[in-house]
Every structure is written in structure tokens, then in C-alpha cells.
Amino acid sequence: GSGSGKRSRGPVSKRMILGMLALIGVFVSTYLTLFKLGYIGTLKCAVGSCETVNTSRWATFLGVPVAAWGLGFYVAALVLAMLSIQEKYAESRVFSVALVALTGWGVLFSGWLTYLELFVINAICVWCVTSACIVAVMFLVSLADLRDFRTA
């Protein structure tokens, strides 16, 4: 209704930003997954040692390429964000909580991977750093979206 019009635009626009960031993440993680699975011969990496990182023993987690875990994460975030902007869910705090939980987990996982790059593998993958930055921004945006419900 007209009384909630102004309030619903806040979370919807933040959720749209989350969807856009997730879509960018889908492209980055798809690129890295395709490399790991052998469909792309060499990674285009302007800075750092992408191949060193992506061919290390740490590039696989529970038998699945880390990039594929990232792809699953970004697809889940994209689906949640796209569902959450539907009019019937625009006022749902559940989606905000789910996005904070998902992206918070993503930040922890990305932090662990960044630690491995810096202190175990001793190489940096610019694509991985890009993904970690996307996840961090997604987490901050999802926190802002959740905060909108607390201040409404």
C-alpha cells in the first residue's frame, strides 16, 4: 500500500545490488571453475600468480574445486536476492537474515582462502582477491539491508 511504499524501496534496492554483485561473482567463479576443470588452458592474470594458487592442493575442498564452491555460493546468493525483490517478499526480514548468514559464511570462507594464499601457498590470485572483495561488499550490503528492518 501507499503507507509502506517508501520503506520497501530501501531493502529492494540493496537486494538488487546484492543480485548484481552475485551475478558478477557467478562470472568470476565460472571462469575459475572452467580453468580448474581443464576447459581453459591458462588463466589471464595481470597481477599475482593465479595458476600457482589454482593448481595448489588448496584449490580443492572436499573433492570439489574451491571455485565451484564459490559458484554455488554466488548462485545461491543470486537466487535469494532475486526472490527477495519480488513484491510479495520485499517486506520479508527472513530474506535479509538469510542473505546476512550466507554472505557472512562467504566472508569467513574467503578469509580462510586469503590466509592460505598469503601464508601457506605464498602466492596471490587476483581473481580470488576480486571474489573475496565481492563477498565482503555483499556482506556489508546485506547487513545494511537487515538494519533497514531494525530501524523501520
Tell me the layout of helices and strands:
Blueprint: H1 5-36, H2 50-54, E1 60-61, E2 64-65, H3 66-84, H4 93-121, H5 126-151
Antiparallel strand pairs: 1-2
Q: What would your notes on this structure say?
A:
The protein is mostly helical and about 150 residues long. About 75% of the residues lie in helices and about 5% in strands. The protein contains five helices and two strands, in the order ααββααα. The protein has a two-stranded antiparallel sheet. β1 (about 60) and β2 (about 65) form a beta hairpin. α1 runs antiparallel to α3 (about 65-85), α3 runs antiparallel to α4 (about 95-120) and α4 runs antiparallel to α5 (about 125-150). The longest helix has about 30 residues, at about 5-35. It starts with a helix and ends with a helix. The relative contact order is 0.19.
Brief rundown of the structure:
With 152 residues, the protein is mainly alpha-helical. The chain is 73% helix and 3% strand.
Please describe the biggest sheet, giving its number of strands, its sense, and whether it closes into a barrel.
2 strands, antiparallel
**CA distance, first residue to last residue:** 16 Å
Number of helices: 5
How much β-strand is present in the residues?
Answer: under 5%
Shape: elongated
Number of strands: 2
Give me the Rg, rounded.
Answer: 17 Å
**Helix percent band:** over 70%
Would you tell me the structural class of the helices and strands?
mainly alpha
Q: Low-confidence parts, pLDDT < 50 over ≥5 residues?
A: 1-8
Strand order of the largest sheet: 1-2
Can you give the mean pLDDT?
A: 89
Order of helices and strands: HHEEHHH
